[in-house]
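To close the section, here is one more complete example, presented without commentary so you can practise reading it yourself. The ligand is pyridoxal-5'-phosphate.
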Amino acid sequence: MKAPTTTDPAPSAPALDVAAVRADFPALAQEVHGRPLAYLDNAATSQKPRAVLQALLHYYERDNANVHRGLHELSRRATEGYEGSRARLAAWLGAASPSEVIWTRGTTESINLVAASWGGANLRDGDEVLLTEMEHHSNIVPWQLVAERTGARLRYVGLDDQGRLILDQIQEILAGGRVKIAAVGHVSNALGTINPVAEIAALVHDAGALLLVDGAQGAAHHGVDVRALCCDFYALSGHKMCGPTGIGALWARAELLEAMPPYQGGGEMIDLVEKERSTWAALPHKFEAGTPNIAGAIAMEAAVNYLAGAGHDAILRHEQALVTYALERLREIPGIRLFGPEDPDERAGVVSFTLPEAHPHDISTVLDSEGVAIRAGHHCAQLVMRRFRVSATARASFYLYNTTEEVDRLVEGLHSVQSLFGGA
Ligand SMILES: Cc1ncc(COP(=O)(O)O)c(C=O)c1O
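Output:
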C-alpha cells in the first residue's frame, strides 16, 4: 500500500545535500564518548539548525518584549514576529487563515485543549471517542480525562502484525453511530507506521464525526496540507521539526474554534472583564491565555523556512532511503525482531527493534558508549508494547541530516551488543 496521506516524493525533486545540511546543525559536529555523534533519536526531538538558534538569540538580544500589550517599538517588533510566524505556519499547513492556528506548548497541550474544550462541551454519556492502539499517551490520557467527566466511552482500533491499523475495525466502530470524534496519529512514534489519514477522515466524516490528527511525528517528516488530509484538528510540536522546545500548534477549522469555549482563562484571551463574567478575544487569542512562548513562536518561522528550503519531498525521500537501508542491514543481525510495516513506503524514518540477548536499555547504553544515540523504552506507547507483548523496544529514528554511515555504526554497535551479551 502506498501511504496516501503524505506528499509522494516527486522523482524530479532534487536530492538533499546532506553534507551541507549537517553543516547547518552545530550539535551534530560534536564527539560523544570520544566518537563522532550519530544522533538517531529524532522521533524524541530533532536537533536545531543555526537559523533557528539565531532567531532565538536575535529575539532575546534585540526584540525582547511582551506581545500585543506595549505601544513601544520592541513590543511592536515582538508582536510582528509572533504573528508573522503564525501566518507562515498557517500558510505551510494550508490553513484558510492565520486565526486557525493556535500557539500551544506542543502536541500534548494541543490535544488537551481539544479534549477539554471541544470534548467538554460536546461529549455526553453514551457518546464514543475512537482511538487506536498505536496512539502516544498524549493522544489517550486527555480523552480518558474527558471521558471520566462526561461519561463518554473510548473505543480502540487494533493493529495487525505489521503494526498497521485494521481499517475494518474503524468501520465497525463507526457503524455503531455513537462516535463523535476520532483521534488518530499521523505517524506512529513507536512503529513508524504512516496512517492513511485522508481515508480515515472520509470514513469518520461519513459517520458524522470529527477527526483530530496527532501530527507530532507527521509534521516533522512530511509536508502537511490540512485541507488535503481533510481532518478537523491537527496538533504538532515545534521541537520535532527543527524548532525549539515548548512551542507547538493546534490547527482547526475556524468555525469549530469559534464554537469552542476557552481552554484556559487569564490575560490576553479576554475582550471585557467584569466582576462576574467576561467576554472572549477573537480567534486565535481566545485560546492563548497568558504570556506565550514568544521566542519559541518566532523561531518556528525559521524552522518552517528551513524545512521548506530543504524540500519536503527531498526530506521524505532521504528518510525512506535511510529506512530501506536500515531495514536491510538490521535484518542481517541474528535474532533481531523488527516492528512496523515491512514496506518502507508505509513508514516514516523510525525503526523499532529488540534483540533476544539484551534489554533495550542495555542496547541503548552500549550504543551510547560508541557515540550512537537511540531511544529505548515504551516510547509513551504502552498499548503498542502490550499489543506486541514486549515491555520496551530500542528505536532508531532518522531525520534529514542522518547518513547511511550512521546506520552502519548502528549495526556495528548492535554486533558489539551481541558479543557483549553472549549472542552470535
Ligand atoms: C505521536 C506523538 N504524539 C504526541 C507526542 C507528544 O509530543 P510533545 O511531548 O511534544 O507534546 C509525541 C512525542 O513523542 C509523539 O511522538
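Once you have examined the C-alpha cells, check your reading against these statements. Residues 106-108, 136, 138-139, 185, 189, 214, 216-217, 237 surround pyridoxal-5'-phosphate (CB under 6 Å). Residues 1-11 have pLDDT under 50 and may be disordered.
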